[in-house]
Amino acid sequence: MSQKVCPFCGGSDQRCLHFVGEIDHTFGEVSGVRELDNLSQVADNLDRFFKKGKPTTNNTKNTLITDLYSSWQKTGSIDQFILGRFIVSLLLEAGAKRSVSLNPAKDRKVGDSSASMPGFTSSETTLFAASPDRVAGAALEKLKGYLS
Ligand SMILES: [Zn+2]
After folding, report:
1. What's the chain's average pLDDT?
2. What is the per-residue pLDDT across 91-119, written as a single tens digit (0 to 9) for each?
3. What is the mean pLDDT of residues 10-23?
4. In 1-148, where do the E strands start and end?
5. Distance (Å, rounded) from C-alpha 147 to C-alpha 142?
6. Residues 6+ apart with CB under 8 A from 6
7. In angstroms, what is the span from residue 25 Cα to ligand 1's centroid?
8. How many Cα atoms are found within 13 Å in the side-chain-facing hemisphere of 48?
9. How much distance in Å is there from the Cα of 26 to the middle of ligand 1?
10. Virtual CA dihedral for 11, 88, 36, 145, nearest 10 degrees?
11. 71, 28 in Cβ contact below 8 A?
12. How far is the centre of ligand 1, averaged over its atoms, from the C-alpha of 110 (Å)?
């Protein structure tokens, strides 16, 4: 296992002042700063939103919304794996940064904020930010923007 290190202070216990949260891609679960609790409701928000009709181009500026919608149409539920990626993309858009790996040969590069995440293999993503609460709040605003 490679250790995940804060890109701001180099702390490795994931509980430094910059720790935003951890996203479990297997279950689409989010844990971290309190403001992230709101992002735990993303699946419910999306479910309600999709029931109202097909997303418009304004909604799908984040292409993961398109992916979530097409899988929702097929299964009637929010795909947890895409959901985790979507939450990560919201937080990265809001200014969060991925953890730095002490074993860079094994993990992907830091600072790649692409939503599609090529080479994505980890089952968890750990994110940090200079102002974790603010970034979590901003991510929620991004979500509201996409779903308006
Ligand atoms: Zn730190």
Report:
1. 84
2. 999 999 999 877 655 544 444 444 444 44
3. 88
4. 4-5, 19-24, 29-32, 97-98, 100-101, 124-128
5. 9
6. 12, 14, 16, 18, 19, 99, 100, 128
7. 23
8. 8
9. 25
10. 140
11. no
12. 15
- Residue 47 CA to ligand 1 center (angstroms) comes to 34
Q: How far is the CA of 99 from the centre of ligand 1 (A)?
A: 9
How far is ligand 1, taken at its centre, from the CA of residue 132, in Å? Answer: 10
Q: How far is the CA of 12 from the centre of ligand 1 (A)?
A: 8
Rounded Cα gap, residues 51 and 130, in angstroms: 36
Of the segments 58-62, 68-72, 78-82, which one has the largest average pLDDT value? Answer: 68-72
Q: Would you place residue 35 in the very low, low, confident or very high pLDDT band (cuts 50, 70, 90)?
A: confident
pLDDT band at 59 (very low <50, low <70, confident <90, very high): confident
* Distance between Cα 23 and ligand 1 center (Å): 17
Whole-number pLDDT of residue 78: 93
